[in-house]
Design a protein that fits this description.
Branched-chain-amino-acid aminotransferase; 8 helices; amino-acid biosynthesis; seven-stranded mixed beta sheet; D-amino Acid Aminotransferase, Chain A, domain 1; 16 strands; 2 domains; binds pyridoxal-5'-phosphate; branched-chain-amino-acid transaminase activity; nine-stranded mixed beta sheet; D-amino Acid Aminotransferase, Chain A, domain 2; pyridoxal phosphate
C-alpha cells in the first residue's frame, strides 16, 4: 500500500512539545499527523495518506453515529535508550482488528497494511515518542487505530464506505507515584457480553455499555468494575478494559477462558511470560465464589489485571452487595511479571520472545 504524505505546516513547537512530553497525561494531546485509508466495495482500500491532524467533517447521517459499526485498537510505541523506536506485537493488534471487524461486518484490512499504517504515523511523528533514558520512566506514544462506517445512509446494513484511521497521543506512566492496587466493584445489574454477542470484539459499543457500571463502581468508592458472565452470573469475566489473573499458593495462575472476554495481547503475553518464570497459567472458568473462598483461605495469594494502558496492576479488595472480599496478601509475583514485561517493552532486557517491532 502506498501512502501519500502531506506534512503539517504548523507542527507543535519544540518548546511546547517538551512541555507536553514532560507531563503527557493520557489521551489529551495528539501528534501533528494522522493516517487515513478509505474503503468501498468496488475500490477496496485506497487513498492511503498521512495528513496534518485535524477534525473530520461528517454528514449527520454517517452510519457510525447511528448504528455504531466501529472497531478500534490500542497499542504503544516505546523509545529505547539508544533512541530507536519499537511497537509491541503490532501484528497481534492487526489480527485482532480483523477478528473484531469480522464481527462488526466491516471489511478486512490486511495485517501488513495495518502495521504499515501505524509505522508510517510513528515515523512521521517520531519526535512525539517520549524519551525515558533519564530517570527510567515508562512513557510511551499511545496509538489508536480505528475503523468506522463512514457512509451517509440510515438504512440498516453494513456500510459501503468505511474509513480506517490512526491517531497517536503521548502517554505518561499509568500510575503516578508508584503502582498501587485497584479496588473493584462487582457488577450484578449489568453484564458486558453474552454468548454470540460482541464481547470478544474491540468495539466502542462494549465501552458504551460499561460506563453505567463504571459509574456505579465510582459511586461505591471503587476504581474499576468486575463483570460476571451473562448466563449464570457466576463466572468472573474481566474488568471491561483489563483481563484478570488469580495467583495460587502453589505457584500456578488461573485466568478466565476466552469466548466472551476480550482477548488482550497483554493477557496472551503474560501467559507465555509467567510460564517461563515457572508459573503455569490455566485458562478456565473461574467463579466469584472461588475468588471469595480463595482469598479467605489464603489459597489465592495475589490477583492482578492487565492491559496495554496499565500493563499490569495489582488488584486489591472487591466490594459487592453480597459482602466484601479483602485484598490478597501479596503483590510480589504481580510486580515481577510487570517488571519483566515493561523491561522488554522499553528495551531494558533481551527480547527473547521476539515481541518488539522496530519502527525507527
Ligand atoms: C483492549 C481491551 C483489553 C486489553 O487488551 P490489551 O490488548 O492487553 O490491551 C481488555 N479488555 C477489553 C474489553 C479491551 O477492550
Amino acid at each position: 500500500m502506498d501512502f501519500s504524505t502531506t506534512l503539517s505546516t504548523a507542527p507543535v513547537s519544540d518548546e511546547r512539545l517538551a512541555e507536553i512530553l514532560a507531563n503527557p497525561g493520557f489521551g489529551t494531546h495528539f501528534t501533528d499527523h494522522m493516517v487515513t485509508i478509505e474503503w468501498t466495495p468496488s475500490e477496496g482500500w485506497h487513498a492511503a495518506r498521512v495528513t496534518p491532524y485535524g477534525p473530520l467533517t461528517l454528514d449527520p447521517a454517517t452510519a457510525v453515529l447511528h448504528y455504531a459499526q466501529e472497531t478500534f485498537e490500542g497499542m504503544k510505541a516505546y523509545r529505547h535508550d539508544d533512541g530507536s523506536i519499537h511497537t509491541f506485537r503490532p501484528e497481534e493488534n492487526a489480527a485482532r482488528m480483523v477478528r473484531s471487524s469480522h464481527r462488526l461486518a466491516l471489511p478486512v484490512l490486511e495485517v501488513d497494511d495495518f502495521v504499515a499504517a501505524v509505522d508510517r504515523l510513528v515515523e512521521v511523528d517520531q519526535r512525539w515518542v517520549p524519551d525515558n533514558s533519564v530517570g527510567g520512566g515508562e512513557k510511551s506514544l499511545y496509538l489508536r487505530p480505528f475503523m468506522f462506517a463512514s457512509e451517509a445512509f440510515l438504512g440498516v446494513r453494513p456500510a459501503q464506505h468505511v474509513t480506517f484511521m490512526v491517531i497517536a497521543s503521548p502517554a505518561g506512566a499509568y500510575f503516578k507515584g508508584g503502582v498501587k492496587p485497584v479496588t473493584l466493584w462487582l457488577s450484578t445489574d449489568y453484564t458486558r457480553a453474552g454468548r454470540g454477542g460482541m464481547g470478544a470484539a474491540k468495539t466502542g459499543g462494549n465501552y458504551a455499555s460499561s460506563l453505567v457500571a463504571q459509574q456505579e463502581a465510582t459511586a461505591q468508592g471503587c476504581d474499576q468494575v468486575v463483570f460476571l458472565d451473562a448466563q449464570e452470573g457466576q463466572y468472573v469475566e474481566e474488568l471491561g478494559g483489563m483481563n484478570l489473573y488469580f495467583v495460587h499458593d502453589d505457584g500456578h495462575i488461573v485466568t478466565p477462558e476466552t469466548g466472551t472476554i476480550l482477548e488482550g495481547i497483554t493477557r496472551a503475553s503474560i501467559i507465555e511470560l509467567a510460564g517461563k518464570l515457572g508459573h503455569p497459567v490455566e485458562e478456565r472458568r473461574f467463579s466469584i465464589d472461588e475468588w471469595r473462598d480463595g482469598v479467605t483461605s489464603g489459597r489465592i495469594t495475589e490477583i492482578f489485571a492487565c492491559g496495554t494502558a496499565a500493563v499490569v496492576t495489582p488488584v486489591g479488595s472487591l466490594k459487592s452487595d453480597a459482602g466484601d472480599v479483602p485484598a490478597p496478601a501479596s503483590t510480589d509475583l504481580t510486580m515481577q511479571v510487570r517488571q519483566a514485561l515493561v523491561d522488554v517493552q522499553l528495551g531494558r532486557s533481551e527480547d527473547t520472545f521476539g515481541w518488539m517491532h522496530r519502527v525507527v
